[in-house]
Specification:
Elements (H helix, E strand, L loop, with lengths): L1 H18 L8 H9 L2 H6 L9 H16 L7 H9 L1
Length: 86
Protein backbone atom coordinates (compact mmCIF):
# COMPACT_ATOMS: atom_id res chain seq x y z
CA UNK A 1 0.00 0.00 0.00
CA UNK A 2 2.90 2.36 0.69
CA UNK A 3 4.09 1.94 -2.89
CA UNK A 4 0.73 3.04 -4.27
CA UNK A 5 0.62 6.01 -1.90
CA UNK A 6 4.11 7.12 -2.85
CA UNK A 7 3.25 6.78 -6.54
CA UNK A 8 0.13 8.89 -6.08
CA UNK A 9 2.13 11.52 -4.21
CA UNK A 10 4.81 11.55 -6.91
CA UNK A 11 2.20 11.91 -9.63
CA UNK A 12 0.46 14.67 -7.64
CA UNK A 13 3.73 16.60 -7.40
CA UNK A 14 4.19 16.35 -11.15
CA UNK A 15 0.64 17.52 -11.88
CA UNK A 16 0.83 20.37 -9.35
CA UNK A 17 3.54 22.10 -11.36
CA UNK A 18 1.32 22.24 -14.43
CA UNK A 19 -2.00 22.79 -12.63
CA UNK A 20 -0.87 25.85 -10.69
CA UNK A 21 0.79 27.72 -13.54
CA UNK A 22 -0.51 29.47 -16.60
CA UNK A 23 1.10 28.71 -19.91
CA UNK A 24 0.54 30.81 -23.00
CA UNK A 25 1.72 29.65 -26.38
CA UNK A 26 1.77 31.69 -29.53
CA UNK A 27 0.41 29.68 -32.42
CA UNK A 28 0.60 31.97 -35.44
CA UNK A 29 3.33 29.88 -37.07
CA UNK A 30 1.21 26.75 -36.66
CA UNK A 31 -1.81 28.54 -38.11
CA UNK A 32 0.23 29.63 -41.12
CA UNK A 33 1.50 26.08 -41.56
CA UNK A 34 -2.02 24.62 -41.44
CA UNK A 35 -3.15 27.00 -44.17
CA UNK A 36 -0.28 25.87 -46.41
CA UNK A 37 -0.82 22.12 -45.90
CA UNK A 38 -2.40 20.08 -48.66
CA UNK A 39 -5.51 18.03 -47.81
CA UNK A 40 -3.38 14.88 -47.81
CA UNK A 41 -0.89 16.43 -45.38
CA UNK A 42 -3.70 17.69 -43.14
CA UNK A 43 -4.85 14.08 -42.71
CA UNK A 44 -1.30 12.88 -42.11
CA UNK A 45 -0.30 15.65 -39.65
CA UNK A 46 -3.20 16.12 -37.25
CA UNK A 47 -3.54 19.73 -36.01
CA UNK A 48 -7.26 20.44 -35.58
CA UNK A 49 -8.17 19.80 -31.93
CA UNK A 50 -11.85 20.32 -32.74
CA UNK A 51 -11.75 16.95 -34.48
CA UNK A 52 -9.88 15.18 -31.68
CA UNK A 53 -11.67 12.16 -30.21
CA UNK A 54 -11.24 13.12 -26.55
CA UNK A 55 -12.45 9.76 -25.22
CA UNK A 56 -9.84 7.90 -27.23
CA UNK A 57 -7.18 10.49 -26.36
CA UNK A 58 -7.85 10.24 -22.61
CA UNK A 59 -7.89 6.44 -22.68
CA UNK A 60 -4.49 6.42 -24.39
CA UNK A 61 -3.27 9.12 -21.99
CA UNK A 62 -4.23 7.10 -18.90
CA UNK A 63 -2.74 3.91 -20.35
CA UNK A 64 0.48 5.88 -20.79
CA UNK A 65 0.37 7.10 -17.19
CA UNK A 66 -0.18 3.55 -15.98
CA UNK A 67 2.65 2.21 -18.12
CA UNK A 68 5.30 4.95 -17.88
CA UNK A 69 4.59 6.75 -14.59
CA UNK A 70 3.33 3.88 -12.43
CA UNK A 71 5.44 1.26 -14.28
CA UNK A 72 2.48 -1.14 -14.35
CA UNK A 73 1.66 -3.53 -17.16
CA UNK A 74 -1.46 -3.01 -19.25
CA UNK A 75 -2.02 -6.78 -18.85
CA UNK A 76 -3.10 -6.19 -15.23
CA UNK A 77 -5.84 -3.75 -16.27
CA UNK A 78 -8.78 -6.23 -16.21
CA UNK A 79 -7.94 -7.25 -12.65
CA UNK A 80 -7.54 -3.61 -11.60
CA UNK A 81 -11.01 -2.85 -13.02
CA UNK A 82 -12.46 -5.73 -10.98
CA UNK A 83 -10.87 -4.35 -7.80
CA UNK A 84 -12.20 -0.88 -8.57
CA UNK A 85 -15.78 -2.18 -8.94
CA UNK A 86 -15.76 -3.78 -5.46
Amino acid sequence: MCTITSQINKFGDILTYFALRTFKYKSQNIRNLIIKLSDRDKKLFFFDLKELDWDEFLQTYFYGIRLYIFKESIDTLPEAKKKLKR
